[in-house]
Design goal:
By secondary structure, chain A is mainly beta. Chain A contains 3 helices and 6 strands. Chain B is an alpha+beta fold. Classes of the chains: A mainly beta, B alpha+beta.
Chain lengths: 157, 140
């Protein structure tokens, strides 16, 4: 399918583009193995990360601030784009279409929390001539508690 | 919806797309890309694959849905919120984006238990085209 068709609004097609994020060529969809574990990525969540995220959207930081006005809780979707670094070297994202993203927010991630992001390829399939992959990925805190669980399905050309 | 519908709108400017994309590179420097390149920033690259212009990151407006829930429900969103959105059409630089939660009746997802409040989540562009849709929920 061309993206042109997507832009013309073919309702039968699932179509938001998510594009060549990785500059280096990686393995193809054919080589992708269901069950592949990806990550971990490690971060310490900072006030700056929250401020940058809110500024980029752009939205007010207030829902994520403590009564003192300092950022205290990470916006739950701040690490949602981590599917990109998780898949780096495992799948050439190239040109593709994001079909769906789902997230369960189980507990808040606080400023200064050290978190780990890990994922697993849970499905790959063909639909209407396109190749899709599904990744589940979790954010856990330093106590090993799962803070959020995400599932993303995208096509890749 | 048991509360007033939630809504926000914003311009998906090229600057906004660049700012959102830069977050990834700031977190993971190996993924930094030269400014103005790729289908998120380069008009010609975007048009070469049939887009009207540089395409936005779908997780950008997805984040706005989550933000509306954080604004309204706070701790209830941070402790048990759920979101699921399907992306229907691309959003491009220069589009106006309208995010709406709870404005129309939701078709309760089959996996959702009765002890959750479930709301429809929709994203429209300036042509009133539905570009993304799904649902959000919190524990009752």
């Amino acid at each position: 399918m061309s993206v042109d068709r997507a832009c013309r609004g073919d309702a039968a097609l699932v179509t938001t583009a998510q594009v060549d994020q990785a500059s280096e060529k990686g393995p193809s969809w054919d080589e992708l193995q269901v069950g592949l574990v990806v990550g971990p990525l490690h971060y310490t969540i900072t006030e700056e990360m929250i401020a940058d995220f809110c500024a980029a959207l752009p939205v007010a930081e207030k829902p994520y601030q403590s009564s003192s006005g300092a950022a205290s809780v990470m916006p739950p979707t701040l690490l949602a784009t981590d599917y990109i670094p998780l898949l780096k070297g495992h799948l050439e994202l190239g040109w593709g279409l994001m079909a769906r993203h789902s997230m369960k927010v189980l507990r808040p991630v606080k400023v200064d929390d050290k978190v780990t992001v890990r994922g697993k390829i849970t499905d790959k399939y063909e639909k209407k001539g396109r190749h899709y992959w599904t990744l589940q990925y979790d954010v856990t805190n330093s106590s090993g508690q799962v803070c959020s669980q995400s599932t993303i399905s995208c096509s890749v050309d | 919806m048991s509360t007033k519908p939630l809504a926000s709108e914003f311009d998906m400017s090229q600057q906004a797309i660049d700012a959102f994309g830069a977050l990834i590179g700031k977190r993971v420097p190996a993924l930094r890309r030269p400014r103005g390149t790729g289908h998120h920033a380069d008009v010609e690259a975007a048009k070469s694959v049939g887009l009207r212009g540089p395409v936005a990151y779908s997780l950008h407006y997805y984040a706005h849905v989550s933000h509306l829930m954080a604004e309204r429900f706070g701790e209830r969103w941070f402790n048990g919120g759920e979101i699921s959105v399907a992306f229907i059409k691309p959003v491009c630089a220069g589009d106006r984006v309208f995010v709406k939660v709870g404005e129309r009746d939701v078709q309760r997802p089959p996996e959702s238990s009765e002890d959750r409040l479930v709301f429809q989540a929709d994203v429209f562009n300036q042509l009133n085209e539905l570009v993304a849709a799904g649902h959000v929920s919190i524990p009752k």
